[in-house]
Hints:
By secondary structure, the chain is of the alpha/beta class. It has helices at 3-15, 53-56, 59-64, 66-77, 86-96, 111-115, 141-144, 173-185, 201-206, 234-245, and strands spanning 19-23, 102-105, 120-122, 125-132, 138-139, 160-164, 188-192, 211-215, 228-230. The strands form two sheets. A six-stranded parallel sheet has the order 3-2-1-7-8-9, sandwiched between helices. The longest helix has 13 residues, at 3-15. The radius of gyration is 19 Å and the shape is elongated. Nicotinamide-adenine-dinucleotide (NAD) is lined by residues 24-26, 28-30, 33, 35-38, 41-42, 106-109, 124, 192-195, 197-198, 215-218, 233-235.
Amino acid sequence: MDEGKIRQLAGLLAGAGRTTFFGGAGMSTEAGIPDFRSAGGLYSRDTGLAATAEEVLSSGFLESHPREFYRFYRENLLHPEVSPGPAHRALAWLETAGYLTGVITQNIDGLHQLAGSRRVLELHGTVHENFCTSCGKTSDLEAMLTGDPVPVCPACGGTLRPRVVLYGEPLDPGIWLEAETLVRQADLLLVGGTSLAVWPAASLAESFRGTLVILNREPTPLDARAELVFREPAGQVLEAVVSLLDIGKTD
Ligand code: NAD
């Protein structure tokens, strides 16, 4: 780890009026959840179906092949056993200590909130909430684990579906507006663990005109515009910054 760059990042955080974090699946790889586009990510896996992972996780596929969709969804996107990793914990500490205004995430795993982050905007929804397509009643992740294989509403026996934005579906306009505002008001934007390949989410980072820092193992389309680029695991970088700022909890 380059100590000079860690000091620079700590300086940017200390000097910024408002800092926002925008991240994706790479924020959870150190916790044990595979991302999509890295080697070993979900896209490189055989779905066992005549469709790619991206096609399976689409509204059209859910409609035409519900049984296959739910088998794939349970096996690949539900990780109830996983705890927050170093990246999630460090961001929660940064927010608590007043260095971060909020986290905008493309992730659906809920790990930022579990780590203690309070202002989290989930652009693509969450696996922790489901709703019944018949009665509308909501239920938790546990309810998604029952059914053969199509999940069943515990209240009325209708079909459950996750509150997750699938490919081909629009984002929640209220969350999007709040995310745009958070980015517009920031003078420092940290972007981490995202290939910036999924739109419109990536346009949030694209539209930002302040000081940009990228924490991503692989090159991104915005590297050339960034003040600092880190290729090390994001959790290690953020932990080092937290330690330098002396704000991490010790328990
Ligand atoms: P992506 O797979 O396209 O890109 C992840 C990026 O993170 C890659 O460029 C990779 O190099 C980088 N990366 C991986 N581990 C890293 C680490 N420890 N430190 C720094 N960089 C790291 O993911 P995306 O851009 O978020 O887009 C994929 C979509 O998939 C998102 O919409 C997201 O909702 C969904 N998804 C979510 C989860 C989750 O909730 N944990 C998991 C898989 C996919």
